[in-house]
Structure formats: C-alpha cells, structure tokens
Amino acid sequence: MDHLLALQDKLISDSYTPGAYTHFLIHEPKRRKISAAMFRDRVVHHALCNIIEPRFEKVFIPDSYANRVSKGTHRAIDRLQHFCRHYTYVLRCDIRQHFASIDHAILLESLKTHIPEPDLMALVEKIIACGCEVLADEYTMVWFPEDDLLAACRPRGLPIGNLTSQFWSNCYLHDFDLFIKRELGCKAYLRYVDDFALFGDSRQQLWEWKKALKLRLARLRLTIHDHKAQVVPTAHGVPWLGFVVYPDFRKVKARKVRHATRRLEQRYAAYCDGRISFAEFDASVQGWINHLRFADTWGLRRHVLRPFRIKPGDLRHKKSRAATRRDQ
C-alpha cells in the first residue's frame, strides 16, 4: 500500500518518470522483441487505460477485435468466416513493422481529440516517449513522398508487450478503419492489430481499394506487405490468426501444428525427467486443445496427442519419481 501511495503522490505532483524496459526475444511464430515494463509502470498503464479506454470504445468500429472487451481472436475468426460465407473475394493485408513504425507525433494528435485534460495528456506523452527507440534496431527506414532527411529522426515505435501499446495501436488505426468503412464503402471489413481483410463480390473493386488504402496508410507512415496482399476467392481459404478459414470449415496452419508438436514434446520430456509436474504438462495440453477446438481438428488432435498417452500405472510412477527428484 505504501508503494501505491508513493506512486500516487508522484502522479499528482507530475514527478512520475517511467522506468526502463526489460527486453527478451521470442521466436514463435516469428522473431519478436518483447519489452516488459516495471511493475509500478504496469500499474500506471492499467490505471490510465481504465480512464481513457471507455472514451475510445464509444467510437471504435465493431469489427476491430484486438485488445477489446468481448472481442478477441476467436470472435475475429468467427466474423471472418461469416464474411467468407457471404462474399466471393477477399483482400487480406498485414502492416509491415507495425509497432516499430507508429509515429509519435501522429499518434499524439489522434489521442488529443479524446483526452482534453492537460495533466492526463502529459502522462500519455511521457509513456509514449519512454518507448521511443525501443524497437529502433527492429525498424528499417521507409521513406515517403515529401520526406526530407529529418524524417529519419522522427520519434517512432511502441514497445511490444505493453497494455498501452496494444490500445494505442487501435487508436492509431481508428481513422484508417473509418476510411475503409465510410469513404471506400466496404461493408465487410475487419481488423486484428495489424492484420485486416476486406471482402466483396468484385475482384476489380478490391484491387482499387488496395490502391486507395495504401495511400491512406502512407499518411500514417505505414506500409503493407504488398506481395502478400492479393485478391483471392474466399472458397480457397483465408489465412487468419493461425488458422486457414473457409466458408464451411477451418484448418490450423501447418506451422502452428509443427510448433505445438515441438512444444508438447519438450514439455513431455520435462515431465518424464521430473522437471515439471503432471499438472503442468496437462496444462500445456489443455491450452493447446482449447485453442484448436475453434477449428475442425478432432482428427488432428488425436494424431498429435497419440504419442503422449500415459497409462495410470505409468502416471503414478512418473509422479513419484518427480516428487523424489524435487525432494533431493
């Protein structure tokens, strides 16, 4: 409690300064630099989001699914499949270097509209500025029309892993969402962080929309993976958040299956060696099953889990062996 009161005093007196981040790398599904804020900073992040999130929730489009109450990955998959059933073609895009590219000046301008309080905005600016250069080594400079040499010095980047970063990502792309819905007139559009999809029955119209959205993203100093952004029939399947979604069924990406198999093999070996308990191994299995149950994967689950079958007698032996090793 004393620490919380001290933190409150610093916030009231405007003497609060965010601490340094702890960085680590993950390599699945691809290499990412994750930045973890100090505990006291995470407390501030949560308190700040509790104040400002409701203001933005009122204006966000319904089909933005990341880091929002009653949204999430599986609802985004359900919604995408709904669109697959009603439209012939899809244009799926993803933004290059998304968090590393977010421009601080543009972000702050978009936030000021809904944060009129000077003291609250000052706190927001501190947190955003603290993340500057965190992803500098992950960013490859992109030049836009009318840029001068000073463009390379523009403050940019949000630390991956922060609650505020995920929320501000939605704020940053809010105007882009409105552009797709209102100016382009796309009735079937959804976004999850930096992945988004537009649906229609005209292949030509989707190609025209691609040109328009690239120009709009350039205003935000963002680009898409152009070669990946193709117009394809929805009947061919849409790669989306680790699944391939078809109008009438879903598959898990092969890469996800390989990763899950490796992970379960590692956890099973750790269990057999007594380094983890059966409950810990079982938690890994159940977590994987809970994710896969949102696709047509009954046969896949049986195939992947078959090597990890354990007889009750073997279970007792493993448990006793694990307990013995822990006692030693």
User: What is the gyration radius calculated from CA atoms?
Assistant: 23 Å
Q: How is the main sheet built?
A: 4 strands, antiparallel
**Total beta-strand segments:** 9
Summing up helix and strand content along with how strands pair, one would put the structural category as alpha+beta
Q: Compute the separation of the termini in Å.
A: 38 Å
**Percent range for helical residues?**
40-55%
The low-confidence runs, each spanning 5 or more residues with pLDDT under 50, are 311-328
Using the alpha-carbon principal axes, give the shape: globular
Characterise this structure.
The chain is α+β, with helices and mostly antiparallel strands and 328 residues long. It folds into 2 domains: 235 residues, no CATH class; 57 residues, no CATH class. The strands form 3 sheets. Strands 4-5-3-6 form a 4-stranded antiparallel sheet, sandwiched between helices. A 3-stranded antiparallel sheet has the order 7-8-9. A two-stranded antiparallel ribbon has the order 1-2. The protein starts with a helix and ends with a helix.
